[in-house]
Write a structure and sequence with these properties.
The chain has 332 residues and is of the alpha/beta class. The protein contains 13 helices and 11 strands. An 8-stranded parallel β-barrel has the order 1-2-3-4-7-8-9-11, surrounded by 8 helices. The protein has a two-stranded antiparallel ribbon with strand order 5-6. It is globular and about 60 Å long. The N and C termini lie close together (12 Å).
Length: 332
């Protein structure tokens, strides 16, 4: 049976609330918790705090940008968090997006997959304790190595949607973290992941695939569906081009175009109304506990999926997240 992980939502009130979510997830048998890092709290500091306040649950991040920190700093971060957590850490990297790269990190969004590949390879080189020696298109040179801290194995998971990015994850990383795929589309994309593993002369069984499924269990199933519609409208309309393109290619092209156009025009109500029942039924897990559990099982039954990561929706309350966490906790 695949593992069940959990993802901390953005915008939580305070560090103590995040730590409380982590210990609550640990108490209910979740295997791993992952933290976001976009324009909010620094993920490294939060992970260090969680390493101290938890005992057994795995720790990950969603995701560090290859423009936000140098590969050497990422490598130092990886070995330090591995030491702090007694080996429970997995690093999350992704190609990021034009908006975050250019408007937050103030860098040019240039050849993101190439930069991501070089970052993954350099992180591996740094964390191994080797002397850095790299000849790439973005990074070139070296001569120093880790000192004063032991090297450590730091698994790197890549968040990716498109076929080339997923192939890159299979070829160079240690795992893939997809999001907002229907089960059928996820099965199709897994072929790209396996092809990447073959190109890298690696066994896909040694790599971890952990799919994020945003979930909401409420006594009022229609409110849960409305919460999902608003989040999907936001991610399609405002959250960069990649989710919109990915969802469109999964059979929702007309709806995603309508949602994006309405959102761009400032008509949030029209954008939300354009989210179809099929999108809610096939991309997320919402409604009663039985309905949501059935949806999660659809992903867990896919050959090659190692974990389902429970995600949330932005407008859920603390109580709603807590109840959903408990309702969908892994079987003891």
């Amino acid at each position: 049976m695949p593992e069940r992980d959990i993802v901390v939502p953005s915008g939580m009130d305070g560090i103590d609330d995040i730590a409380a979510m982590a210990t609550h997830a640990e108490d209910h048998g979740y295997d791993r918790i992952s933290l976001p890092e976009v324009t909010g709290r620094d993920g490294v500091t939060l992970l260090a705090i969680l390493a101290d306040r938890t005992d057994d649950i795995g720790l990950s991040n969603d995701v560090f940008s290859p423009w936000g920190r140098s590969p050497a700093v990422l490598g130092q971060t990886g070995v330090t968090l591995q030491e702090a957590s007694d080996g429970r850490y997995r690093m999350g990297l992704g190609a990021s997006s034009p908006d975050l790269t250019e408007k937050w990190h103030l860098a040019e969004f240039d050849r993101p997959l190439r930069r991501l590949r070089e970052t993954v390879e350099l992180v591996k080189q740094v964390t191994s304790g080797e002397r850095v020696d790299y000849d790439g298109e973005f990074f070139d040179g070296g001569g120093l190595q880790l000192r004063g801290v032991d090297s450590a194995e730091v698994p790197v998971d890549v968040a990716a949607l498109g076929p080339k990015a997923v192939e890159l994850a299979g070829r160079f990383a240690d795992g893939w973290v997809p999001q907002l795929f229907t089960p059928e589309a996820l099965e199709d994309r897994l072929s790209d992941f396996r092809r990447g593993a073959e190109l890298g002369d690696r066994d896909p069984a040694d790599l971890r695939v952990a799919v994020t499924v945003r979930s909401c269990v409420l006594d009022d199933p229609e409110r849960a569906r409305d919460v999902a519609r608003r989040q999907l409208a936001f991610m399609i309309g405002a959250y960069g081009p990649y989710y919109r393109q990915s969802i469109a290619e999964q059979g929702f092209a007309d709806a995603t175009e309508t949602i994006h156009d309405a959102w761009t025009d400032g008509d949030r109500i029209e954008a939300i109304d354009a989210v179809t029942d099929g999108m809610v039924d096939r991309l997320v897990a919402v409604g009663t506990r039985e309905t949501a559990e059935e949806r999660l099982r659809c992903y867990e039954d896919i050959d090659g999926v190692d974990a389902v990561r429970l995600g949330f929706f932005g407008e859920m309350t603390d109580d709603e997240r807590r109840r959903t966490t408990e309702a969908l906790a892994p079987a003891p």
